Amino acid sequence: MIKNVKPPTTFWLVAIFAIVWNLIEIYFSSVELDFLQANSTVEEFERIQSLPFWYGIVFLIALFSEMLGSFTLFMRKKIAVNFFGIALVTLICIELYWLLVFDIKKQSIVFSIIIPLLVILVAGFLYVYSKKAKNKGWLK
Q1: 104 with 40: CB under 8 angstroms?
Q2: For the chain, does the N or the C end have fewer beta carbons within 10 angstroms?
Q3: Which pTM was predicted?
Q4: What string of H, E and C letters represents the secondary structure of 69-123?
Q5: What is the mean pLDDT of residues 75-100?
Q6: What is the pLDDT of residues 28-87, one digit of tens each?
Q7: Long-range pairs for 37-46: beta carbons < 8 A, 24 or more residues apart
Q8: What confidence category does residue 14 fall into, taking pLDDT thresholds of 50, 70 and 90?
Q9: If pLDDT is split at 50, 70 and 90, which confidence band does 107 have?
Q10: Which one, of 21, 90, 105, lies nearest residue 58 by Cα?
């Protein structure tokens, strides 16, 4: 196994992208509820607010594990792969629940389909990329 190999510039671009992506994700998570409240009927919004307790816990695990994965990727630590793996699994669970249980396409196609799919794709990319970086010896 190759040890302590200097990563290419693209590695640093991906690591910085991961951090910026997570900051954007946190921002969108904070405004999403306000947007849905303003653009939903009272009944629809009450349904959205009635998300199960486990959803909130899994959502927080996904958010923090992806953020930790981003920071540890930037610091070139192997544990980034584990954090991104946890984030991918938890994000798939919560985004599929969001896509399949809640029908908010009437309010916003962006919040109902595009963002959930984009979040899953980016989480998958970060997981695969971190595994590749670990295998190439870019992570210590």
Answers
A1: yes
A2: N
A3: 0.84
A4: HHHHHHCCCCHHHHHHHHHHHHHHHHHHHHHHHCCCCCCCHHHHHHHHHHHHHHH
A5: 92
A6: 877 777 777 777 777 777 777 778 889 889 989 999 999 999 999 999 999 999 999 999
A7: 39/107, 39/108, 40/104, 40/107, 44/104, 44/107
A8: very high
A9: low
A10: 90
Show the tokens assigned to 52.
Answer: 């199960």
Task: Read off the tokens for 70.
Answer: 């981003």
Place of tokens 């979040």: 119
DSSP state of 8: P
Q: For residue 15, give both structure tokens.
A: 């690591």
Instruction: Write down the residue that tokens 């923090």 correspond to.
Output: 64
